What we know:
Number of domains: 1
Shape: globular
Distance between the termini: 30 Å
Radius of gyration: 16 Å
CATH class: Alpha Beta
CATH topology: TIM Barrel
Largest sheet: 8 strands, parallel, barrel
Low-confidence stretches: none
Number of helices: 11
CATH architecture: Alpha-Beta Barrel
Structural class: alpha/beta
Strand order of the largest sheet: 1-2-3-6-7-8-9-10
CATH superfamily: Aldolase class I
Order of helices and strands: HEHHEHEEEHEHEHEHEHEHH
Helix content: 40-55%
Amino acid sequence: MIGKERRLKRLFIGDRQRCLLSPLDHASWLGPVKGIHDPRQIISQVTAGGANALLIGPGFFRQTANLVPSSTAVVLRLSLTPGLASDTSQETPIAGIRSALCMDADAVAVSVFFGRSGDVAIYRWLGELIEAAQSYDMPVVAEMMPPEKKSFDAEAIAHAARIGVELGADVIKTNYCGEVEAFRQITAMIRTPIIVAGGPKGAGDDDTLAMVRGAMEAGAAGVAIGRRVWQAADPRAVTAEMAKIIFG
Length: 248
């Protein structure tokens, strides 16, 4: 467990062991839209703002590796949603543990979107990946997303997260239900560190920061907010404000 412990210490930092994960893995799904159209620029902005970890794909990492500080954890996404494909209901596996080891990643990530076709198949692949990762002390971040109609339902979020725990994931990434007390009950039951996903772009930066405060108050171990940050007028400033809440 030495390797896993060292990797997780880069992912969760500070006295409270928290994580500000910047997800920059949307381009295969959305295309090179504003905010992530220039990988090197957005990497510089979020790391300067205080993100201690990045969620990125293999190709993105290759383009930006020399800009990633040595202290910044890298969570390598091993599955992507091909937005131009005829079937985009689930993500498609695009890399494996060997790629993560070669790129010196600190963790790997896979998403399961429950309620969409193919969820059982990707769920099965995630289980196989977790089993394989154990042999290499590689932490696995399981993004467990409840069915779309129950995206922010506390009971559905808890159920999705618990499935990830049962699979043996080291970290769960899922939605925040919007209510501090309800989410506190989820973090108390799950125990495995939960990183809160950002969801669709909010009304503004204040809305984003309010969500971060609520999630952290409710016991989340961190946040992974993408569009709300890289589509903001000043991604570095928003990241810095989130860092104050999470690590301050």
